From TrEMBL:
All copies of domain CRAL-TRIO, residue ranges: 88-248
Database matches in Pfam families: CRAL_TRIO (PF00650), CRAL_TRIO_N (PF03765)
Full protein name: Phosphatidylinositol/phosphatidylcholine transfer protein SFH9 isoform X1
PANTHER family per UniProt: CRAL-TRIO DOMAIN-CONTAINING PROTEIN (PTHR46226), SEC14P-LIKE PHOSPHATIDYLINOSITOL TRANSFER FAMILY PROTEIN (PTHR46226:SF6)
Amino acid sequence: MGAVSQEAIWELKALMDRGFLYFALWAVDELLKRTFENVHQGYLTETLVRFLKAREGNVAKAHKMLLDCLNWRIQNEIDNILAKPIIPTDLYRSVRDSQLIGLSGYSREGLPVFAVGLGLSTFDKASVHYYVQSHIQINEYRDRVILPAASKKHGRPITTCLKILDMTGLKFSALNQIKLLTLISTVDDLNYPEKTNTYYIANAPYIFSACWKVVKPLLQERTRRKVKVLSGSGRQELLEIMDEASLPHFIKREGSGSGSSRFSGQGNENCFSLDHPFHWDLYNYMKEQSLIREPVAPVKQGSFHVSVPDPRPEGTEIAKTIESEFQKIENSNGLSQSINGMKINGGD
């Protein structure tokens, strides 16, 4: 949908105000207010607009979505998740080496640029709970630290980011990751709606292009408009919206033939690496928060379990479609290889 009407924003705000007044009678409003403050970070209107957009401007549905989000945060102690670092550090490093994401810089408009190595992420070094915990922690750090700092620097609300998804290395084995990626996507769709301004798809192989043709019609129009498939690495297109310094390492190395190796480049250049300043700042921030909340008791090892809401029907349909399309391509390749094999054997 386009711009949200002012009337819808006022109506949603009125519903939230009445809700807080009602909950005050039951002495439970403090938790709701605190978690709501962590959601909007002082940018109330922009937050209401995000939830309205996510529900196509329907005030009642946006109100329910927002309340569901707040209750999810309370039930899962999301406000405390930045005080729950994944320890020991070696375990966290394993998570970072297999769940490739990082902050590469900022656009010229001041939006944070997050790079995601979707093609080479393996998600095979820890349990699902650690990956979900890590993803939510990055979301919360983005929303509570990165975006407020960017807003202060530029003197205006900056409440969204850009994402560059690197598809280098995408293989049929990605089928094993669909369930986890669906969980993460569900968390974002229901609790962090409209936080990404644009998704840039870089280094897309044939397997992605084939799936995209099938999946694209299943997406809502507002989502389709956000996705831009770049030509190759898209270096020149990306330089139109950000400086060279903010390009992810796998874009900077265009033409080097090194692809998007999770281990290539220096730590301070590879935004996926735990040695990158963004990840060290995040990890140190979490350790500091853990000491503030639990100054005496040591932080215990163990993942922070978060309940994930059931995916929306369209999300399940998209996941099944991707899986089906991957299978078709794999079967087609298998048949092609068998035919080529017969030709080779017949010629001997």
